Structures are given as C-alpha cells and as structure tokens.
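Example 3.2
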Amino acid sequence: MKGEVYFPREDSILLRDCAQMLAKGIVAEMGSGTGFVLQGICDRIECGIGLDINSDAVRFAEEESRKIGCKNLYFFESNLFSFLKDYKIEFKEGRLWISSGRTGKIFDFILFNPPYLPDEGSDVALNGGKRGIELTEEFLKEAFDFLKADGRILLISSSISNKGLEDFFDEHLISHRIIKDTRLFFETLYCYELSREKL
C-alpha cells in the first residue's frame, strides 16, 4: 500500500495544521490521499469530501476514517473536479445526498496540497508540471465554481515554484496571504489562504 498512496509528510502536516486553525462547515480536499488532513479536522467541520485520482487512496482513506470514527467524511475517485462535475453533492439535515447533475457552490473551504515540483516524471503525487505550478493553475481555474462566495481555499506551495504562482494569483484577481510556513533544508513550504474577497 505504501508504494501506491502518498503518505503524510511535512507538506501534509502544514496543511492539516492550517486547516485545524481555520476550516469549518462543508470542506472538500483535493488529492486527499490517506485522509490524513480531513481526519484531523473531522470533529470541527460538518462534512468533509475527499477527492483523489488514486482509487487505492480512496479506499484506504475510507477504511481509516471509519476505524477512527470520522463518520462525516466521504471519499471519491476524481481527476481534479471531475466527480463534482458529474454528480450533484448536497449536505442536508446531517446527511450527504448524491444525485445526477453538477455540484454547486457548496463548500466553505477547499484544501489542496498539490504536486509542486517541476518535471518530476510520471508520478502524479510529485509532478506539478514543467514549472511546478501547472496542475495548481488548472485547479484554481475551477475551484471557485464550487466555493461559496465567502469561501476560502487553503493551498500548499513551495519556494521552488511559488513566485510564478503569486503572479497567477494577481492575474486572476485572487486575494492571497501566507498563513504559515515550514522551512526545510532545501525549500520552504507555504500554506496560502485564497479568496475572491479581500483578505
């Protein structure tokens, strides 16, 4: 299993720390992996939706979440937002409802620890594209379609590629601020809070 699922490292821990400080309501996590981040906040949110391209990760996260009693977390296989574009998710009266259609702007927070390394080959857990931010840009072009008007995105980035990312924020009128950083030997990791509103 360890060879198939991205297990938590410093970047996952940074996202979880920031989510524990800020996240509330209905939360989606893109690239949810083992479920580590959502499991860390399941007691402070109404509902958590984990999306991951890796079906092994989805199964693992579901099993682990049930073991530790996180009954308000649900995990689905999805290539970025493909699942939310194919199915309508609603959370009513403490229950998750899924029907045909497209999910609307239901999320208070969307979390993402994307691959952010440039040109790391075919490993989808590491390869962020030629500049390291192409996948993040693709995510951000759609994320606000599923976020409430006052919703927030928590996004992990690295000093290796975040300069181009901040240019993208400015170009697409995305308000941003760094909530917390983690300094490593070869890079600094950042957790950004993003919004369409002024931060």
